[in-house]
Amino acid sequence: MGEKKNPNRIPAANADAWRSWAMPVIDDDGSVVNAHKKTQKQEEQSEESIEDVEVEELPQGGLTADELEAIVREAELEGFAKGREEGFKKGYDDGFDSGEHKGALEMRQQLVAEQQAFQALAEALLQPIDEQDERLEKLLLETVTRLTRAVVERELTTQPADIVTLVKSAVKALPAGSDHLSVYLNPQDAEKVEQYAQEHQLDWSFHRDSELAQGGVKVATRDSFVDCSVERRLDEVIERFLSQQEVDEHTSDEQLLAANTGSDPIAPDISGEEPEPPTDTSQPSDDQEPEL
Predict the structure, then answer these.
(1) How far apart, in whole angstroms, are the C-alpha atoms of residue 112 and residue 106?
(2) 204-208 and 181-185: which strand pairing?
(3) Directed axis angle between helix 129-158 and helix 230-247, to 10°?
(4) Quick check: 179 and 287 in contact, CB under 8 A?
């Protein structure tokens, strides 16, 4: 039986006359894509890759209660850990902000306090002169007053003044017609004045007062009293000097000295002429005893 020929079969001897042919690429619109577009499309498709993801196969028959509970517990722990971390971070941030604000406030208060202290120190350094001058002036006046009293008392002790002239000046200061006259003297001055009263037959009553400084006298009647003690006269001079300084602070020292040396009531006039009588300073009642 002869072999049956297949019309679609190409004999091997004729294979060289044939070549493979690729089908053209057609786009979505049904048009044939040219060679350039075909090559570009093949390159784009070659760059795309699909990642194979392994999916864990669930056991056949579903999850058991223990497995489900373990999954829930793991989710809870994971959520708790995440919440704890977020809460810790938020608390840290809030605490840091609060601490920073508090620290800045405390620092600001400290700076204000230090600024006030520095300002007070600067004022104390820049303006201490007035206060110190006032204190020094007061201290100097007190020192000069004590020194003046000491010098005057010593001068009256070493060079006693004419006490008789001073007594007569004090008596002249009394109102006319005064009687019952009492004279208060230092014991060292009393004898000389008593002798003068006896020689002139004067009805004077003498009182020796050891507390009365030498060179001073106090004369009293039932209605009047004259104080010519050294202390009183010295107080008047110092008071007048201080008052004059307060009135005119710009007066020079030479002018003040000239103003205060014009008439000095501390040392009585011993030239023999009658001095100006002292001023009657008070009018005690009949029942009042004269001050010593």
Answers:
(1) 10
(2) parallel
(3) 150
(4) no
Q: With CA atoms as reference, report the closest residue to 234 among 219, 216, 218.
A: 216
Distance separating alpha carbons of residues 206 and 290, to the nearest angstrom:
13
- Which parts of the chain are beta strand (E)? 181-185, 204-208, 217-220, 225-228
Compute the distance between CA of residue 10 and CA of residue 3 in angstroms, rounded to an integer: 15
Residue (of 255, 259, 265, 263) closest to 232 by Cα position: 265
Burial (CB count <10 Å: 0-12, 13-18, 19+), residue 170? buried
CB-hemisphere CA count at 13 Å for 137? 10
Q: N- to C-terminal Cα distance for the chain?
A: 190
pTM score, whole prediction: 0.37
- Compute the distance between CA of residue 6 and CA of residue 171 in angstroms, rounded to an integer: 187
User: Residue 181 forms beta bridges with which residues?
Assistant: 204
The 3-state DSSP class for residue 227 equals: strand
Q: Is the Cβ–Cβ distance between 170 and 277 less than 8 Å?
A: yes
Provide the pairing of β-strand 181-185 with 217-220: antiparallel
Non-local (6+) Cβ contacts of 245 within 8 A are 251, 256
Query: Is residue 134 a contact partner of residue 239, using CB atoms and an 8 Å limit?
Result: no
Give the integer Cα–Cα distance in Å for 11 and 18: 11
Q: Phi/psi at 228 (nearest 5 deg)?
A: -115, 35
Q: Which two tokens stand for residue 45?
A: 């498709």
Average pLDDT per run of 10 along the chain, which is 292 residues long?
Answer: 60 65 67 62 62 54 73 81 79 72 79 82 71 78 75 62 82 81 88 89 88 85 84 79 69 60 44 43 43 37
The pair of three-digit structure tokens given for residue 53, joined into one six-digit string: 């993801």
